Amino acid sequence: MLINRRTFLAATGLLTLAPSVSATQATRLKDVYHEVLLRHTRWAETQYDATAGRYRRTDFGFAVVLGNAVLLTRGGYDAALAGVEEDVLRRNTLATVRHFAASNVLAGGGEWGKTLFWDTTFQSYFVLAARLLWPELDAATRANVEAIARGQADYAVSLGAGNDPRSGGWSPNGLTGGYRGDTKLEEMGVYAQALAPGLAWHGDGPGWREAFGRWSRNEAGLPAADLANPAAVDGVPISANTATNLHDTFIVENHGSFGPHYQEELWRTSGRNAVHFLLAGRPLPEVLTQQPNGELLWRTILATMSDAGEPLMPMVDDREHLYGRDVIPLAFRSTVLRDPMAARAEAALASRLLAYQAHPPVHRLAKFSGEAKYEPEARAELAISYLLHELRPPVEPVPEQEFFARAAITIDHGAEPGLLTQQSAAAWAGTVTKLGFTKLAWQPAHDDWLFKISGTTPMLLPPAAVTGRHTATYRRIRDGFDATASLLRFADGFAGTATLPTGTIVCALPRPGRVDVHNLAMAGMPGLTGSRTYTGAAGSVTVRAREGFRVDELTFPATSARHVRMVGIRPHPTYGYSLFDFEVDGAAGLTASASSSDPGFEPSRAVDGDPATRWAVARSDRGRADSWLAVDLGATTTVRRVRLRWETAAAGAYRIETSADGAVWTAVAEYPRPDLSTAGWLDVDGRAGFVARSADPITVQGDTITVPAGVVEGYVRADLRAIAAQPAPQCPPAVRASTADGFLSLFNLSTEDVTATVRLPGFRLYRGTQVTTADGTEYALGLPAATARVEAPWFTARGVPPGITAVVHDARRVTFRGGPARFTLTHRDGGTLPVVLGRAERTVTMPWAKAYPFDDLALGRLTFPCSVLPPGMSDPAAAVDGSPRTAWTPGRDGRMVVDLGALHAIREVDLKWTDGKPPPHTVTYSVDGRTYGPATTARYVAVSTGWRPGHASLTTISVSGLAAV
After folding, report:
1. Is 60 exceeded by the pLDDT of residue 3?
2. Hey, which residues does 669 pair with through a beta bridge?
3. Which of 835, 812, 833 is nearest to 823 (CA)?
């Protein structure tokens, strides 16, 4: 991980003065949210139980009252959009509030409430709705609502740091927390959330404020960062935190994998809590605006952000496109924290809400993912977002064209989280190596509706367990460019990946790779027109979106048979195979058999003529590839066609076989049959494309692209025909190489070190030694076993004759020999020098260029304290940002820590101070970020000072050393 907090915050605009509030923007977003709530009311009214005279308890359907309360007290009510008259909605809402206020356990009822997981979330919505409607509530209902807020706060305090016995296995694990598999950030947020309504509406009860602060401060707890931070929040030092809820790269896991939706929980619960204080007219607790580690956690969100203002979900698959619930974290950050990057993301998400809402099932806000309770929850959180905009108008967003340029970053989150990622101005890409999720996920132009990447969806890489992982990250501050490289080991071979600053990706594939394409009609959503057009050297084809369940009609040469069967090749990754109908040339009265079936889903149900019944494989066979369903025609018949209507569990691939006796089978057709098969290159809907350096074709079948084994390059809107026509590098066995966008991506797909020559087209010069030829260079390659790397094209030699040796030392200096010769040397970043080379070698230096890469281990690294700084201290990241014009001012007795990212054998630490007298200082080291002292091997380096006003500030801390074995 190669970015420090100061660099990141400066890039995102968070170190600048807050831009002025735009009344137009605030009003526009409020108007969108109001209209979406009105339209969503049509769904909300389906939760009304006319017999009971209130909204339903099932899946917390009664939480729709918060959206209702906003519509009844804010803005202009539009019955035509809502589908219900205002007086009816008011009557239904007030009746529901009266009932559920009285039926809450904390008010003496027995229907719901008190349970921390997840009743308190809906209590928060419910209490807020009641407060909006307070003048219209009777005295008894008001008393019950007050009892809920007070009683829940008292109950949460009574638990101390223990578990809620009413919540089953849900627990924050005390104040220790947890970060492997399932973060406890969310659980600690719920404990704080249980206290907020009481604090906001009733002031400080016994222990309420202390417990609220304790849980809130620990939500994003990370000991290495917290112990280095003496800053106080609500009067309590951050160093008193005890929880570990984050991986040390500021990433969270939930459901066993990286889940950005859960990474947003810090601001989702903060939004729920803040709106109570704001509406009650009380000051916000400091922890809501000074969240320990919050900004570095936000950085990870920006590192996976899509163009829809919603973070990408490369692993978890049931929280993708959850627009209704992903608004509130952005609304909180843009209004309460006044974050211009969040304001831009929120504006992007809001601009898509109405189009999203209009897509079937119409009016819904959580239609593509999640649990049933997510729908009323999405309504409530959209209502809170509306209120946040009313109570705290948002900051002006950064310009749209600057957003991703400011968010650009490369991060290796490590083997345990299993994610190596790059956000660039042109695309997002991530090499995922978590067990069960292996893929090279790529989103050209940040379009989260182009390629499917969530959950176990395979993408390019073999969907198998990674048994070894070599990675490299490149950052401009240290290397002069942003990129990532990986070499992954599998049980049966290797694969390599590279991501480039241009948004291009490179894969070295051991076998064909697969990319699934989103294809549906969602009017108003960019790209979702109901079809995708694919173009290659062999022509063009338009694939229309499938409506409903997939239907396959396969024809084949006439053949005589009594038995016909479908034999699976690739099942649905979760559910196996399931067919509503299996028809053979319209024949009736068929009997069916199968390799297995689930109870109630027997083979006969696929041939009974009932479109609602189906056959499904046994649950135990869902992962079996060769499951089959056969039909007996009753007599030998000439057959030419089969029609299969699949359920969600549709085969990715299968074959049709016929038989005269049911014993000997002959294959007559296969699915898929490609819609397009093209050599060399493929454009995908004018949005992205692939170039395959292989003799085998790229194929399109339906909404699936298959690329061949070998080197495959993915481009964001490029002249693919011209790129494919360019010659590819010539490599020794086991080595693969690409010169996509001029960068040299190298992969050693073997268990042996390689020392060899790679022939490269053109006259770009890379770090290392190369000899010019008539049409390019011969690059001297040294590549350790099972590794990958990326080299930047620092120089281009123009007019250079064959036989000239060029040794590129760094991005500033190159040595030539083999003259005499005259040629021109051009630097990648601009600037040209004429070179006159005699018989002696000559070293040429570009005087204005930086000598990338730099060996300083501290350069661009994370520094602590972060997010919340102690009084008088400036950001310590100024000491590692590579700029001589910035410096860290420690403040009284200030101390800073540099996280080197991994253990290193430390050789030397060099400190440079501004003019003046340096303060007394010491340097100490730590392996774990907890205990510091003298050391030769360390990950963390601390500078402790006795700084007083008048002392010098620290311009630079440089660390030299080697990676520890």
Report:
1. no
2. 656
3. 835
Helices (H), 45-138: 64-73, 79-82, 86-103, 119-132
Residue ranges, CATH 2.60.120.260, the chain: 862-962
pLDDT of res. 15 = 32
Q: Enumerate residues 6+ apart whose C-beta is below 8 A from 59.
A: 371, 372, 373, 375, 376
pLDDT of res. 318: 77
Which among 560, 557, 559, 565 is positioned nearest to 655, based on CA atoms? 565
Helix (H, G, I), strand (E, B) or coil at 463: coil
Query: The domain 23-401 is classified under which CATH number: 1.10.357, 1.50.10, 2.60.40, 3.90.75?
Result: 1.50.10
Number of Cβ within a 10 Å radius of residue 732: 15
Q: Where in the chain is the domain with CATH 1.50.10?
A: 23-401
Answer positive or negative: Cα dihedral of 203, 209, 212, 213.
positive
485-to-410, 535, 580, 785 alpha-carbon distances in Å: 11, 29, 45, 14
Q: Which residue did the predictor score with more confidence, 651 or 548?
A: 651
Give the dihedral of Cα atoms 173, 174, 175, 180; nearest 10 deg.
-10
What are the beta bridge partners of residue 605? none
The four Cα atoms 108, 112, 118, 121 give a dihedral, to 10 degrees, of -70
Q: What is the pLDDT of residue 2?
A: 40
Question: Residue 361: is its pLDDT beyond 70?
Answer: yes
Of 392, 323, 331, 399, the C-alpha closest to 359 is: 323
965: pLDDT confidence band, cut at 50, 70 and 90? low
**Averaged pLDDT, 634-656:** 93
Q: Please, which pLDDT band fits residue 105 given cuts at 50, 70 and 90?
A: very high
Smallest CA-to-CA distance from 877 within 6, 143, 119, 224 is with: 6
Q: Report the run of H or E that residue 483 belongs to, with start and end.
A: strand 483-490
DSSP label at residue 708: -
Q: Is the Cβ–Cβ distance between 940 and 929 less than 8 Å?
A: yes
Neighbours of 262 (CB within 10 A): 19
* 628 alpha-carbon distance from chain centroid: 37
Distance, CA of 2 to CA of 475 (rounded, Å): 6
Q: What is the pLDDT of residue 660?
A: 95
- End-to-end, the C-alpha distance of the chain in Å comes to 19
How far from the centroid of its chain's Cα atoms is residue 797's Cα? 40
Q: How far apart are CA 379 and CA 372, in angstroms?
A: 12
Give the mean model confidence (pLDDT) for residues 482-487: 98
Instruction: Tell which wins on pLDDT, 573 or 364.
Output: 364
Q: In one letter, which amino acid is 129?
A: A
- pTM here is 0.90
Residue 24: per-residue pLDDT: 58
d(CA 614, CA 49): 33
Instruction: Please provide the DSSP assignment of 240-261 as one string.
Output: G-----S-TTS--EETTEE-HH
pLDDT interval class at 8 (50, 70, 90): very low
Long-range CB contacts (< 8 A, 24+ apart) of 133-138? 133/69, 133/72, 133/73, 133/93, 133/94, 133/97, 136/90, 136/94, 137/94, 137/97, 137/98, 138/98
Instruction: Quote the CA–CA distance of 720 and 743 in Å, as a whole number.
Output: 17
537: which 2 tokens? 């050297």
pLDDT averaged over every residue in the chain: 94
The predicted structure's pLDDT at residue 27:
66
Residue 9: is its pLDDT beyond 70? no
Model confidence over 685-728: pLDDT tens digits? 999 999 999 999 999 998 999 999 999 999 999 999 999 999 99
Please tell me the CATH code under which domain 862-962 is placed: 2.60.120.260
Rounded to 5°, angle at Cα 679 from 678 and 685: 50
Question: Does the pLDDT of residue 6 top 50, yes or no?
Answer: no
Query: Helix 119-132 to helix 86-103 angle, to the nearest 10 degrees?
Result: 130
